[in-house]
Amino acid sequence: MQNEALATIAVLGGTGKEGGGLALRWAHKGHKVIIGSRTAERAQEAADAMNATLGGSSVVGAANPDAAAQADIIVLAVPYAAQQSTVKDVADALAGKILIDVTVPLVPPKVSRVQLPDGGSAVEAVQKMLGDGVRVVSAFQNISAHHLTKLDEEIECDVLVCADDSDAAEQVVALAQEIGLRAWNAGPLCNSVVAEGLTSVLIALNRRYKVPGSGIRITGV
Amino acid sequence: MQNEALATIAVLGGTGKEGGGLALRWAHKGHKVIIGSRTAERAQEAADAMNATLGGSSVVGAANPDAAAQADIIVLAVPYAAQQSTVKDVADALAGKILIDVTVPLVPPKVSRVQLPDGGSAVEAVQKMLGDGVRVVSAFQNISAHHLTKLDEEIECDVLVCADDSDAAEQVVALAQEIGLRAWNAGPLCNSVVAEGLTSVLIALNRRYKVPGSGIRITGV
């Protein structure tokens, strides 16, 4: 299934639902995908399960720093509480690469309330920690993991892609389109506060209107 | 055109495009509408123009404090720079009423960047200033004024309604539906940060994709 012309993608936190769903879709489209986790063993278990689902061998597992080192593009899909420590663990492997941050700053138990860290977006703190040498892009926060794992299902939710490096944002728009998602270059990294906060709004809508996975579509474009 | 059974609505800043568009649509549906402005003269001019458009007399003009005093529901649709001073001017007339805040904290010239006041939503500062005796609701930030003034045009943008008083939020959802808008009770007032920030994201999309008025639809509900 591997296609040498396609970027190798590491999904840190790929053992989780959201990261796992994205990993599955990219592997299905021919990317070599490396599942990252805190331990190589857990990562390999998730990779094996994914290969079994896809009937291939394009997914491998590794500890987060090894996964990041071997990839062209790194996706950060860990819980908010682990965001900064995971970035520190892999920072040495990120120079010059694109880091796609999927983190939503949910603060349990009130996950349907928007609670911004220090009033800003979570991803801006990551960009600040890493410096300009890493191309940090925010994306995929609002996509329901439930829908990602159904490979033939059209996902009725658009992806807002935010980055200070507009070329990196366009590459992530293309990566989203590859797996069947409508995606938009939505401006600078600070605009990610909307995508991050929107997840809590969608959880609030799910609860109030008793639906499993609300989303958004951009209209008029 | 006036219908005594319907709430009287004051639109502070109803001389502007967004407030004027909302005022026109509510007047068209039979509400008595009071246009508020800093001077009664400017307000009356805008009211006269609206009555001429509608062929009626249901719209009147008044200085902001008088407009607020005579209304059941007050809509705040002034520029961000005038938000807090306008609220102070009319505070005495708001007790027990619903105040619908439409304010977007745009900071020119970079209006396509999300720039949150002290990291939070603009409307929370208003609720804090007024105290619990006023039912503050955030809504309508993302609706293009351009579309509102075309009375027979379907508007392809949903309204996110946020309030700590859920009953007040439901009343505003109904007011939005009256004028042909899909609207959702999107959780507590702090969630307004998404609706406020989303306006800058939509401006960023308008510029990048060269469209006049992008919007959002909620899906899966």
TrEMBL record, chains A, B:
GO BP: copper ion import; NADPH regeneration
GO MF annotation list: coenzyme F420 binding; cupric reductase (NADH) activity; ferric-chelate reductase (NADPH) activity; NADP binding; oxidoreductase activity, acting on NAD(P)H
Database matches in InterPro entries: NAD(P)-bd_dom_sf, NpdG, P5C_Rdtase_cat_N, STEAP_metalloreductase
Gene3D superfamilies hit by this protein: NAD(P)-binding Rossmann-like Domain (3.40.50.720)
Domain of life the protein comes from: Bacteria
Residue span(s) of domain Pyrroline-5-carboxylate reductase catalytic N-terminal: 8-105
Pfam families: F420_oxidored
Gene Ontology terms: cellular component: plasma membrane
Keyword annotations of the record: Oxidoreductase
Protein known as: Pyrroline-5-carboxylate reductase catalytic N-terminal domain-containing protein
Organism: Sphingobium scionense
